[in-house]
């Protein structure tokens, strides 16, 4: 009823191949972006700082991993470390060249991460699947060790931690203790939207088709003239670029400062959860996955005590924490059983149902 | 030149000068190798029979050991606790098969892998809920695990052998022997091997896949319990063991995902390589290389022999 293809005629090939061919979709995305921006002025500091900023940062990292795992079919468990490379590179650049705008450095730091990612992507030319996952674990542990052992990375400061120095954009502080959650949210949101737009163009274009071809059948792809070496390394580089930028955002715009421990193996797993629950090979799925995996525990932390208290069960914070683990675990299994293709597939089904409503097909 | 000397000459000179230290390091490496091998064995069992890359093996080690210690602390006699822990692993195997594997049959590998992640989270939550998050002491005395050390004088120095380590090596060997006999001589073992070769062919000759899955998960659970007891006796039972279990992954790479002897030899190579690397080359770069050396060894190895030492040659080369 509200969602109809009827009457929308396409007269050019580009219009037919557009990412949002339906007018309703275009309006919808505009409304979502507008809502996201207006949230900066409507939402309170807690919502922005504790929910929206991390959600966006994790979405960006999930998009990065989704490019690698979902589109190019290369399983990686080194996401956390690649995020770390971005964060440390950003810190070094920021402190070495304080006069250059910090936003520039956030984007540039991704390139360092991309280079490291491509380096550790080299084994992907010979191995795949879980073997590759173990190879990327080498990256994870080796890079994490580097973060601890190379004091040069943190400018020899005693605490060994990264901290966000005061940096401004148009005279407004975006980094450091004085930056408000509102400004930081707007910066993160803009970067995420920009990079998502780039990613969307990448995966729908020639490069994305090459990745998908390699994922679906590498031999056939090679016969068609796609070079596995370049394609796979490019996937690693682009994926690590996204993760690197996400890592820089995570440390400087969300935490405001962090230690090497933020980029541990659990972070890698966390992002992988998001990608798989959200839907492999789907950009919107990355957002859904990040929302579910990150926001669900927060919601559970609030809802669970309220649910248990009417039964006279006053439980401690630790029990809530354990229950949260159990519920998240059970829900992961539940979602996989109900829809192995992730939340993105549910979204697709929902859209299809809306299109044909009120008829079943 | 100096750095080359430090990397390629000095460690070996040092090894030659102090053979007792070398022997001690080798022994330490072998013992941790046995423990890695035990965890890798659990992975291999499940991977062979169901093609599931079981990430939850690490937490199964912790969980089974926690049940044993937890029951003992509640006043249950040690051996009864052991039997109950084995029973709990059987229960877990049945539950996993019913709730996780059966609805997800025929899904892509990565989905099943992901499901074992979910299982890991669930077991972490459950374990902490029941037993609390604090590290526990593994019971050794009531299970007749020997304590103490023997110091042998050789090569002009003292070499220490912990009795517990010797016991661990012996028990692991017995375990592996039993598994080998089970796989080659019994009816169920033959069925397991048939399933490993081809699910469809096994089904068509009347082997129940569901039953086989319960059996392999149970077997992996028992292996996990043994690994949990041994490792717990060395360093206490805590949830951090679960991350150490990730060390089993390079072992698998080295030995091949489907080979039981591979898991053992891979475990020993990784264990020894790691300890030697840490002791002789670690100080050059500031130490702590134990955390990643195993993975780098596996990574280098992969480039030359992608199917592992004993693995079946099914890896596609591109």
From TrEMBL, chain A:
Its main location: membrane. GO terms for molecular function: branched-chain amino acid transmembrane transporter activity. One of its GO terms (cellular component) is plasma membrane. It is a multi-pass membrane protein. It is found in: Cell membrane. The chain crosses the membrane at residues 27-48, 55-82, 102-122, 129-152, 185-203, 233-255, 267-284, 291-313, 325-344. InterPro entries: ABC_transp_permease (IPR001851), LivM-like (IPR043428). The keyword Membrane applies. Keywords: Cell membrane, Membrane, Transmembrane, Transmembrane helix. This is Amino acid/amide ABC transporter membrane protein 2 (HAAT family).
TrEMBL record, chain B:
Belongs to the binding-protein-dependent transport system permease family. LivHM subfamily. Keywords: Amino-acid transport, Cell membrane, Membrane, Transmembrane, Transmembrane helix, Transport. It is a multi-pass membrane protein. GO terms for cellular component: plasma membrane. The keyword Transcription regulation does not apply. PANTHER family: ABC TRANSPORTER PERMEASE PROTEIN, BRANCHED-CHAIN AMINO ACID TRANSPORT SYSTEM PERMEASE PROTEIN LIVH. It comes from the Bacteria. It holds the Pfam family BPD_transp_2. The chain crosses the membrane at residues 21-46, 52-72, 79-98, 110-131, 164-183, 212-232, 244-273, 279-304. This is Amino acid/amide ABC transporter membrane protein 1 (HAAT family).
């Amino acid at each position: 009823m509200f969602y109809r293809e009827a009457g929308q005629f396409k007269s050019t090939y580009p219009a037919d191949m557009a990412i949002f061919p339906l007018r309703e979709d275009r309006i919808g995305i505009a409304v979502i972006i507008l809502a996201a921006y207006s949230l900066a002025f409507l939402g309170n500091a807690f919502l922005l700082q504790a929910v929206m900023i991390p959600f966006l940062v994790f979405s960006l990292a999930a998009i990065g991993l989704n490019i690698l795992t979902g589109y190019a079919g290369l399983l990686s468990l080194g996401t956390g470390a690649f995020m770390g490379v971005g964060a440390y590179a950003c810190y070094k650049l920021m402190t070495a060249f304080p006069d250059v705008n910090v936003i520039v450095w956030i984007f540039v730091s991704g390139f360092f991460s991309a280079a490291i990612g491509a380096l550790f992507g080299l084994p992907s030319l010979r191995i795949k699947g879980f073997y590759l996952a173990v190879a990327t674990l080498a990256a994870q542990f080796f890079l994490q060790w580097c973060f601890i052992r190379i004091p040069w990375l943190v400018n020899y400061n005693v605490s060994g931690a990264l901290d966000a120095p005061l940096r401004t954009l148009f005279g407004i502080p975006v980094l450091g203790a004085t930056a408000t959650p509102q400004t930081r949210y707007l910066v993160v949101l803009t970067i995420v939207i920009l990079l998502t737009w780039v990613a969307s163009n990448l995966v729908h274009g020639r490069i994305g088709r090459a990745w998908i071809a390699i994922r679906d059948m590498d031999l056939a792809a090679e016969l068609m003239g796609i070079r596995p070496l370049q394609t796979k390394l490019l996937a690693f580089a682009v994926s690590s670029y996204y993760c690197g930028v996400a890592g820089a955002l995570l440390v400087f715009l969300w935490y405001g400062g962090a230690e090497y421990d933020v980029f541990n193996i659990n972070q890698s797993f966390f992002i992988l959860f998001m990608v798989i629950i959200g839907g492999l090979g789907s950009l919107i799925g990355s957002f859904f996955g990040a929302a579910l995996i990150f926001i669900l525990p927060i919601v559970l932390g609030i809802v669970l005590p309220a649910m248990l208290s009417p039964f006279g069960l006053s439980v401690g914070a630790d029990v809530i924490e354990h229950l949260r683990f159990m519920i998240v675990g059970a829900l992961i299994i539940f979602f996989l059983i109900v829809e192995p293709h992730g939340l993105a597939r549910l979204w697709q089904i929902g859209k299809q149902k809306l299109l044909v409503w009120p008829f079943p097909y | 030149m100096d750095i080359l000397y430090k990397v390629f000459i000095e460690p070996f000179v040092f090894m030659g000068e102090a053979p007792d230290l070398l022997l001690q390091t080798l022994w330490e490496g072998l013992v941790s190798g046995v423990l890695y091998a035990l965890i890798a064995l659990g992975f291999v069992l499940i991977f062979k029979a169901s093609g599931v890359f079981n990430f939850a093996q690490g937490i199964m080690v912790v969980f089974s050991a926690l049940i044993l210690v937890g029951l003992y602390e509640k006043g249950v006699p040690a051996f009864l606790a052991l039997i109950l822990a084995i029973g709990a692993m059987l229960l877990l195997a049945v539950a996993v098969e019913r709730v996780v594997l059966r609805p997800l049959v025929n899904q892509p590998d990565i989905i099943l892998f992901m499901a074992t992640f979910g299982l890991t989270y669930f077991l972490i939550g459950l374990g902490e809920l029941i037993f609390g998050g604090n590290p526990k002491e593994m019971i050794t005395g009531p299970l007749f695990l020997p304590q103490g050390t023997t110091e042998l004088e050789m090569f002009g120095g003292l070499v220490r052998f912990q009795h517990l380590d010797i016991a661990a090596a012996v028990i692991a060997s017995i375990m592996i022997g039993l598994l080998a006999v089970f796989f080659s001589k019994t009816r169920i073992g033959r069925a397991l091997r048939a399933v490993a070769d081809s699910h469809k062919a096994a089904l068509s000759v009347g082997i129940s896949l569901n039953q086989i899955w319960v059996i392999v998960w149970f077997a992996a659970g028992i292996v996990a319990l043994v690994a949990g007891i041994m490792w717990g006796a060395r360093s206490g039972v805590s949830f951090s063991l679960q991350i150490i279990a990730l060390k089993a992954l390079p072992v698998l790479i080295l030995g091949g995902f489907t080979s039981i002897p591979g898991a053992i030899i891979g475990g020993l190579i990784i264990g020894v390589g790691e300890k030697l690397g840490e002791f002789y080359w670690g100080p050059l770069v500031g130490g702590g290389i134990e955390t990643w050396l195993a993975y780098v060894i596996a990574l280098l190895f992969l480039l030359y022999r992608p199917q592992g030492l004993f693995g079946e040659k099914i890896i596609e080369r591109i």
